[in-house]
Amino acid sequence: MGMPCGPWRGVIEAYRSLLPVTNRTPVVTLLEGNTPLLEAPALSRTLTGGRVRLLLKHEGLNPTGSFKDRGMTVAISRALEAGVRAVICASTGNTAASAAAYAARAGLLCVVVLPHGMIALGKLGQALIHGARVVPIQGNFDAALRLVREVVADRPVALVNSINPARIEGQKTAAFEICDALGDAPHYHAIPVGNAGNITAYWRGYRTYHAEGCTTRCPRMLGFQAAGAAPIVEGHVVPAPETVATAIRIGNPASWQGAVAARDESGGRIEKVTDEEILVAYRLLAEREGVFCEPASAASVAGVAQLARAGYFDTAPPEATVVCTLTGHGLKDPQTAVAALEPPAPVPAELDAVLVAIGF
Ligand SMILES: *Cc1c(COP(=O)(O)O)cnc(C)c1O
Prior knowledge:
Elements: H1 11-14, E1 37-39, H2 41-48, E2 53-58, H3 68-82, E3 86-90, H4 94-106, E4 109-115, H5 121-129, E5 133-137, H6 141-153, E6 157-159, H7 165-171, H8 173-182, E7 188-192, H9 197-211, E8 220-226, H10 231-234, H11 256-266, E9 269-273, H12 275-289, H13 295-309, E10 321-326, H14 334-340, H15 351-358
Helix pairs in contact: 3-4, 3-7, 4-5, 7-9, 8-9, 9-11, 12-13
Bound molecules: pyridoxal-5'-phosphate (PLP).
Pyridoxal-5'-phosphate binds at residues 66, 68, 94, 162, 192-198, 247-248, 294, 296-297, 327-328.
């Protein structure tokens, strides 16, 4: 397809012919998408010995700080077109932040149902400041999703979780952008898996671009769940999922089948990474590449590191490209950064003390 010329107008205008919108759809956009695809030479050397070319799709640079905006622009535009007055979602945080912002822009009421005490501070702040009606529940994400499905069953409220097909459609545009930037699809695509909507969306995007003749191949899809929340890897629902990566703390993914299809049709893998592996990757990204993502996002890089250690890329084609999606921005969850690295104690406001503290 190739990127359109002129100023960026958001993912709907960029890929209109491949999205479920018509000329009558009122486009609600915050100019999401067009995010950087960054080379990661230091990580490529450190994690794969330079065996593959590692790139980072930095989705934290979307308007509300996560990839959710790509799907939300389509879901909210369609909700407005349908004439509803309110939208609702269950969320581990980023869907709530995105729904709240796009609903505010569209003039729609937004309701978000959240697992109490499990939402990163920045995401809660976003939902509140955009004027969403925030309902914390004494239960986890899976319970929240069950509840909102019941709420919308017989009420004129649009559900904007990724079970809304418009969300998946919008999110596939990230795959289009990657192919446009590289001139072809990458050989491998690594991605964190929570509710599994995004891996489903990328796979659909890659297949669509291939069918349109824009690429010569599709990547192997590599999905990574947190070890304490790995239902697809374990093959059963996890009733009490636990992980530092709150965005993927999900025990019963809505798009389970989509993730399995992406893995099997692409010849890829879905594996689990421990919280320790996630936090190592989280710090490496920040310290070695200057990229601050949230913990869940680092699962993609942790997974690539794990596969590289196991020799998975030994059979990769020469100059193979591996794209890791970094799903959300690190500023969403500053508490995890501070907890990972004890901020230093204050010293007296005197030159000697400061020089000692610096280590000069
Ligand atoms: C939503 C989210 C995920 C998980 O995406 P799914 O589509 O639910 O698999 C991962 N990371 C971040 C930062 C998210 O906001």
